[in-house]
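This is your field. Have a critical look at the following sequence-structure pair:

***
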Amino acid sequence: MARKKGRSRIATDDIDLAAALGAQENYATQCFTVYIPNKDKNGKEIGNQRQWILEALALLTELNGDATAMPQTEGVWGNDQGELIWEHPVVVYSFLRPEVFFENLPRVREFLHRMGRETNQGEVAVEYQKQFFLIREFDSATDETGDQE
């Protein structure tokens, strides 16, 4: 591949990357990311982070065909009392099959709100298309009939 004179990089607009790599033509462009906490809003270990990672991976794979969990990272969050909560979240992400994902947003919402409630979070963080969303108020739990518990 030739470079234009005076340029150190090739503009990606000039390259059909899928063809150059021998990849399929229908590639995903939208990514949804969930941060799975290991501590609650008071800094206490939740003790079941792995359960939430596996559930997020299963849900996103069912909707999008695959999902990936990155190793624990290090982060800090300031709670409402002004305390710094040092934690090790796991980042779970999936590139979307938009039709299926958006049809199932109620399931995604249920998972995120349940995780926030059951792990006593101050907020649950997700990313979509370079936008960072924080869920601070969680839906009430419902029983099998849809009534609130």
